[in-house]
């Protein structure tokens, strides 16, 4: 049996899970770039408000927006992000948006982040002690285990953003298992389920779901292009499976 046949058979074998109308059972989106003008996400306040209205219409109750902190490109600080959150909250309230709005960050695992953790600088978190972080899409990180250990002993719970989007780990189940054993939680990008990031990321996402390794989902919303894909996700079998089997978003 070739890989395609095996994959098709696996999809056909997926039991029917209840239909999902919208994202109201998910409740909280934990990954987005909606503070205008400080990273590669929403560029203007008007765009941010439009996207927040759309998330509200999709059933979300709460949005934790997570601007990039990346030493080479987006030199954001907690002060910059929290001040942007204040502005966004006021504008959203005036525009009739009832979503609960919070902010954390998406930390890029570079040398600067490793040093920040090593110096025990206070990090932006969501849900009390969750720290969202991402790694390079091109090179496997050589310091991930050390940084995860340092985060954990400081009481943080590391949450790896979009584990399905790192091609150098495709087929290497043992790496995902080692990270989980170290206490890392996994946040799937919801749009991976409709193939937005390509077939390999979709297949990896489904494999992680089948192995019960996904703890959170997130829109990773940067702009309207992500919104269009997000609207299609509720019809996906694997989104239904995740919704039926439980993820932590609704607990936040
Ligand atoms: Fe992101």
Helices and strands: which structural class? alpha/beta
Specify the CATH architecture: Alpha-Beta Barrel
Radius of gyration: 18 Å
Question: Please, what is the CATH homologous superfamily?
Answer: Metal-dependent hydrolases
Could you describe the largest sheet, including whether it forms a barrel? Answer: 6 strands, parallel
- SSE succession: HEHEEHEEHEHEHEHEHH
The level 1 CATH classification is: Alpha Beta
Which hetero ligands occur in this complex?
Answer: fe (ii) ion
Explain this structure to me?
The protein contains nine helices and nine strands. It is α/β, with parallel strands linked by helices and about 250 residues long. The chain has one domain (about 25-245): TIM Barrel (Alpha-Beta Barrel). A six-stranded parallel beta sheet has the order 3-5-6-7-8-9. Strand 5, helix 4 and strand 6 form a beta-alpha-beta unit. The longest helix has 17 residues, at about 80-95. The radius of gyration is 18 Å and the shape is globular. The mean pLDDT is about 95. Fe (ii) ion binds near residues 106 and 220.
Lay out the secondary structure:
Blueprint: H1 3-13, E1 28-29, H2 45-57, E2 62-65, E3 68-69, H3 78-94, E4 100-103, E5 106-108, H4 111-118, E6 130-134, H5 144-153, E7 157-161, H6 173-181, E8 185-189, H7 199-210, E9 216-218, H8 224-233, H9 237-245
Parallel strand pairs: 1-2, 2-4, 3-5, 5-6, 6-7, 7-8, 8-9
Bound molecules: fe (ii) ion.
């Amino acid at each position: 049996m070739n890989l395609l046949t095996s994959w098709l058979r696996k999809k056909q074998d997926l039991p029917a899970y209840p239909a999902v109308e919208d994202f109201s059972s998910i409740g909280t989106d934990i990954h987005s770039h909606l503070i205008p003008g400080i990273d590669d996400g929403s560029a203007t306040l008007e765009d941010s408000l439009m996207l927040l209205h759309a998330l509200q219409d999709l059933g979300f109750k709460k949005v934790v927006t997570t601007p990039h902190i990346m030493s080479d490109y987006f030199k954001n600080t907690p002060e910059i992000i929290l001040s942007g959150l204040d502005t966004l909250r006021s504008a959203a309230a005036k525009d009739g948006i009832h979503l609960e709005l919070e902010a954390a960050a998406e930390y890029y695992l570079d040398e600067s982040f490793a040093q920040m953790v090593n110096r025990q600088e206070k990090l932006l978190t969501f849900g009390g002690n969750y720290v969202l972080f991402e790694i390079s899409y091109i090179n496997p990180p050589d310091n991930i285990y050390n940084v995860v250990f340092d985060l954990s002993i400081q009481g943080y719970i590391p949450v790896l953003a979009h584990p399905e989007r790192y091609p150098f780990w495709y087929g290497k189940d043992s790496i995902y298992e080692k990270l989980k054993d170290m206490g890392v939680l996994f946040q799937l990008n919801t749009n991976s389920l409709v193939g937005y990031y390509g077939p390999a990321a979709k297949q990896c996402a489904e494999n992680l779901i089948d192995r019960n390794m996904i703890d959170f989902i997130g829109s990773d919303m940067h702009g309207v292009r992500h919104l269009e894909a997000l609207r299609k996700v509720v019809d996906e079998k694997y989104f239904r499976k995740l919704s039926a089997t439980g993820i932590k978003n609704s607990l936040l």
